[in-house]
Amino acid sequence: MTKKLLIICLLITATSFAQYGYRDSNMIGITLGLNQFNVTTSDFKTTPGQGWNVGLSMRGNFYNNWDALYGIQFSEYNFKVETLNATMHIRETNLKLPCANITFQLSYKFIENHLSVEFGPMVQINGKFAVEKTEENNIINDIADDIPIKSLTDVSNVSFYPVAGLTAGVRNARLNITYQYGVNNIFAKADGGFSGHASVINGNVIFYF
After folding, report:
1. Predicted pLDDT of residue 25
2. CA triplet 90, 95, 98: central angle to 5 degrees?
3. Within a 13 Å sphere around the CA of 131, how many CA atoms are in the beta-carbon half?
4. Looking at the predicted structure, is the pLDDT value of residue 35 above 80?
5. Which segments of 25-184 are extended strands (E)?
6. Quick check: helix, strand or coil at residue 20?
7. Which of 50, 90, 102, 136 has the most beta carbons within 10 angstroms of its beta carbon?
8. CA torsion angle for 165, 169, 170, 174 (degrees, to 10)?
9. What are phi and psi for residue 149, nearest 5 degrees?
10. Are 107 and 120 contacting, i.e. CB atoms less than 8 angstroms apart?
11. Three-class secondary structure of residue 155 per DSSP
12. In contact, 191 and 208? CB cutoff 8 Å
Protein backbone atom coordinates (compact mmCIF):
# COMPACT_ATOMS: atom_id res chain seq x y z
CA MET A 1 0.00 0.00 0.00
CA THR A 2 2.83 2.38 0.89
CA LYS A 3 4.55 1.80 -2.47
CA LYS A 4 1.32 2.60 -4.30
CA LEU A 5 0.95 5.85 -2.37
CA LEU A 6 4.52 6.85 -3.22
CA ILE A 7 3.90 6.21 -6.92
CA ILE A 8 0.73 8.35 -6.79
CA CYS A 9 2.68 11.15 -5.06
CA LEU A 10 5.35 11.07 -7.74
CA LEU A 11 2.75 11.24 -10.52
CA ILE A 12 1.01 14.19 -8.89
CA THR A 13 4.31 16.03 -8.47
CA ALA A 14 5.38 15.33 -12.05
CA THR A 15 2.03 16.59 -13.35
CA SER A 16 2.42 19.80 -11.36
CA PHE A 17 5.87 20.37 -12.84
CA ALA A 18 4.55 19.79 -16.36
CA GLN A 19 1.71 22.29 -15.86
CA TYR A 20 3.77 25.06 -14.30
CA GLY A 21 7.32 24.55 -15.49
CA TYR A 22 6.94 26.63 -18.64
CA ARG A 23 6.16 29.83 -16.73
CA ASP A 24 9.05 32.23 -16.24
CA SER A 25 7.90 32.97 -12.68
CA ASN A 26 8.27 29.34 -11.59
CA MET A 27 11.38 27.34 -10.79
CA ILE A 28 11.92 23.64 -10.23
CA GLY A 29 14.21 22.78 -7.32
CA ILE A 30 16.36 19.75 -6.62
CA THR A 31 16.93 19.21 -2.90
CA LEU A 32 19.87 17.43 -1.25
CA GLY A 33 20.53 17.49 2.45
CA LEU A 34 20.79 16.02 5.93
CA ASN A 35 18.40 15.73 8.84
CA GLN A 36 18.41 15.21 12.59
CA PHE A 37 15.48 13.13 13.81
CA ASN A 38 14.22 12.28 17.29
CA VAL A 39 11.04 11.13 19.01
CA THR A 40 9.95 13.14 22.04
CA THR A 41 8.56 10.71 24.62
CA SER A 42 8.42 10.33 28.39
CA ASP A 43 8.19 6.53 28.17
CA PHE A 44 11.88 5.74 27.52
CA LYS A 45 15.21 7.37 26.67
CA THR A 46 15.97 8.41 23.10
CA THR A 47 18.91 10.04 21.31
CA PRO A 48 18.70 11.98 18.02
CA GLY A 49 20.20 10.46 14.90
CA GLN A 50 21.25 11.75 11.49
CA GLY A 51 19.82 10.86 8.08
CA TRP A 52 19.53 12.18 4.53
CA ASN A 53 17.02 14.00 2.28
CA VAL A 54 16.53 14.15 -1.49
CA GLY A 55 13.59 15.70 -3.30
CA LEU A 56 11.94 17.85 -5.95
CA SER A 57 9.98 21.04 -5.48
CA MET A 58 8.42 23.91 -7.38
CA ARG A 59 8.54 27.56 -6.30
CA GLY A 60 6.24 30.09 -7.96
CA ASN A 61 4.92 33.61 -7.47
CA PHE A 62 1.77 33.66 -5.37
CA TYR A 63 0.92 37.27 -4.43
CA ASN A 64 3.12 40.37 -4.08
CA ASN A 65 6.06 39.28 -1.85
CA TRP A 66 4.68 35.77 -1.40
CA ASP A 67 5.72 32.58 -3.18
CA ALA A 68 4.01 29.18 -3.03
CA LEU A 69 6.06 25.98 -2.74
CA TYR A 70 5.01 22.46 -3.63
CA GLY A 71 7.32 19.53 -3.12
CA ILE A 72 8.01 15.89 -2.46
CA GLN A 73 11.00 14.74 -0.45
CA PHE A 74 12.33 11.27 0.30
CA SER A 75 14.16 10.88 3.60
CA GLU A 76 15.79 8.36 5.85
CA TYR A 77 15.42 9.12 9.56
CA ASN A 78 17.44 7.57 12.39
CA PHE A 79 17.20 7.74 16.16
CA LYS A 80 18.38 5.61 19.08
CA VAL A 81 16.56 4.01 22.01
CA GLU A 82 18.30 2.92 25.19
CA THR A 83 18.00 -0.87 25.52
CA LEU A 84 19.39 -3.83 27.46
CA ASN A 85 20.99 -6.65 25.47
CA ALA A 86 21.03 -10.36 26.34
CA THR A 87 23.84 -9.83 28.89
CA MET A 88 21.92 -6.89 30.45
CA HIS A 89 24.37 -4.30 29.20
CA ILE A 90 22.97 -0.92 28.15
CA ARG A 91 22.97 -0.33 24.40
CA GLU A 92 21.77 2.54 22.21
CA THR A 93 19.84 0.67 19.54
CA ASN A 94 19.29 2.47 16.23
CA LEU A 95 15.92 2.58 14.51
CA LYS A 96 15.75 3.63 10.85
CA LEU A 97 12.65 5.02 9.12
CA PRO A 98 12.24 5.47 5.33
CA CYS A 99 9.56 7.98 4.36
CA ALA A 100 8.19 10.33 1.71
CA ASN A 101 7.12 13.89 2.55
CA ILE A 102 4.58 15.92 0.57
CA THR A 103 4.44 19.59 1.41
CA PHE A 104 2.73 22.85 0.52
CA GLN A 105 4.25 26.02 1.96
CA LEU A 106 3.90 29.75 1.66
CA SER A 107 7.11 31.77 1.45
CA TYR A 108 7.50 35.42 2.38
CA LYS A 109 10.37 37.07 0.49
CA PHE A 110 12.35 39.60 2.50
CA ILE A 111 14.87 39.92 -0.35
CA GLU A 112 13.88 38.62 -3.80
CA ASN A 113 15.90 35.48 -4.70
CA HIS A 114 18.05 35.84 -1.57
CA LEU A 115 16.16 35.58 1.74
CA SER A 116 12.75 34.20 2.66
CA VAL A 117 10.83 32.40 5.41
CA GLU A 118 8.51 29.46 4.77
CA PHE A 119 5.71 27.77 6.68
CA GLY A 120 2.95 25.29 5.95
CA PRO A 121 1.67 21.73 6.39
CA MET A 122 3.41 18.50 5.46
CA VAL A 123 2.07 14.97 5.10
CA GLN A 124 4.54 12.16 5.65
CA ILE A 125 4.05 8.62 4.35
CA ASN A 126 6.03 6.24 6.52
CA GLY A 127 7.44 2.78 6.10
CA LYS A 128 8.32 0.81 9.23
CA PHE A 129 11.17 1.39 11.61
CA ALA A 130 14.00 -1.04 10.88
CA VAL A 131 16.30 -2.41 13.57
CA GLU A 132 19.35 -4.65 13.23
CA LYS A 133 18.52 -8.37 13.54
CA THR A 134 21.18 -8.77 16.22
CA GLU A 135 19.46 -6.17 18.42
CA GLU A 136 15.75 -6.61 17.70
CA ASN A 137 15.22 -8.63 20.91
CA ASN A 138 16.95 -6.07 23.14
CA ILE A 139 14.66 -4.93 25.95
CA ILE A 140 13.65 -1.25 26.12
CA ASN A 141 15.34 0.16 29.21
CA ASP A 142 13.63 1.90 32.16
CA ILE A 143 10.10 0.63 31.58
CA ALA A 144 8.01 -1.64 33.79
CA ASP A 145 7.57 -4.53 31.36
CA ASP A 146 10.18 -6.45 29.37
CA ILE A 147 9.21 -5.16 25.91
CA PRO A 148 11.63 -5.81 23.03
CA ILE A 149 12.74 -2.96 20.80
CA LYS A 150 11.18 -4.68 17.76
CA SER A 151 7.75 -3.83 19.22
CA LEU A 152 8.35 -0.21 18.10
CA THR A 153 8.84 -0.99 14.42
CA ASP A 154 5.17 -0.86 13.39
CA VAL A 155 4.34 2.86 13.36
CA SER A 156 1.65 5.10 11.90
CA ASN A 157 1.74 5.01 8.09
CA VAL A 158 0.74 8.67 7.77
CA SER A 159 2.00 11.54 9.92
CA PHE A 160 1.17 15.26 9.87
CA TYR A 161 3.72 18.00 10.51
CA PRO A 162 3.59 21.79 10.60
CA VAL A 163 6.83 23.06 9.03
CA ALA A 164 8.68 26.37 9.42
CA GLY A 165 11.98 27.35 7.85
CA LEU A 166 14.43 29.89 6.48
CA THR A 167 15.95 29.98 2.98
CA ALA A 168 18.95 32.10 1.95
CA GLY A 169 21.28 32.24 -1.04
CA VAL A 170 21.22 33.27 -4.69
CA ARG A 171 18.65 32.69 -7.42
CA ASN A 172 19.83 29.22 -8.46
CA ALA A 173 21.37 27.84 -5.24
CA ARG A 174 20.01 28.31 -1.71
CA LEU A 175 20.48 26.92 1.78
CA ASN A 176 17.28 25.87 3.53
CA ILE A 177 16.82 25.07 7.23
CA THR A 178 13.46 23.80 8.48
CA TYR A 179 11.93 22.43 11.67
CA GLN A 180 8.96 20.07 11.68
CA TYR A 181 7.02 18.60 14.59
CA GLY A 182 4.78 15.55 14.36
CA VAL A 183 1.22 16.25 15.46
CA ASN A 184 0.09 12.66 15.82
CA ASN A 185 1.45 9.86 18.02
CA ILE A 186 4.00 8.05 15.88
CA PHE A 187 3.75 4.96 18.13
CA ALA A 188 -0.04 4.65 17.81
CA LYS A 189 0.26 1.25 16.07
CA ALA A 190 3.19 -0.05 18.12
CA ASP A 191 2.86 -2.52 20.99
CA GLY A 192 3.22 -1.26 24.54
CA GLY A 193 0.87 1.73 24.57
CA PHE A 194 3.68 4.23 24.10
CA SER A 195 3.24 7.85 23.07
CA GLY A 196 5.76 9.89 21.10
CA HIS A 197 5.96 12.80 18.69
CA ALA A 198 8.61 13.09 15.99
CA SER A 199 10.70 16.22 15.59
CA VAL A 200 13.02 16.88 12.65
CA ILE A 201 15.61 19.52 11.80
CA ASN A 202 16.53 19.60 8.11
CA GLY A 203 19.48 21.29 6.49
CA ASN A 204 19.21 21.23 2.70
CA VAL A 205 20.78 22.74 -0.39
CA ILE A 206 18.25 23.57 -3.12
CA PHE A 207 19.35 24.01 -6.73
CA TYR A 208 16.76 25.91 -8.81
CA PHE A 209 16.33 25.68 -12.58
Report:
1. 60
2. 175
3. 24
4. yes
5. 26-40, 46-63, 66-84, 90-111, 115-126, 139-140, 158-170, 173-181
6. helix
7. 102
8. -60
9. -60, -30
10. no
11. coil
12. no
Instruction: Encode pLDDT of 121-149 as tens digits.
Output: 999 999 999 999 999 999 999 887 889 99
The residue type at 4: K
Question: How far apart (Å, rounded) are the C-alpha atoms in residues 64 and 109?
Answer: 9
Judge contact between 95 and 81, C-beta under 8 A: yes
Taking the CA atoms of residue 44, residue 46, residue 52 and residue 57 in that order, the dihedral angle to the nearest 10 degrees is 60
Distance from C-alpha of 37 to C-alpha of 86, rounded to nearest angstrom: 27
Per residue in 69-88, pLDDT tens?
999 999 999 999 999 998 89
The tens digit of pLDDT for each residue in 179-197 reads 999 999 999 988 888 999 9
- In this structure, is the dihedral angle defined by the CA atoms of residues 117, 122, 127 and 132, taken in order, positive or negative? positive
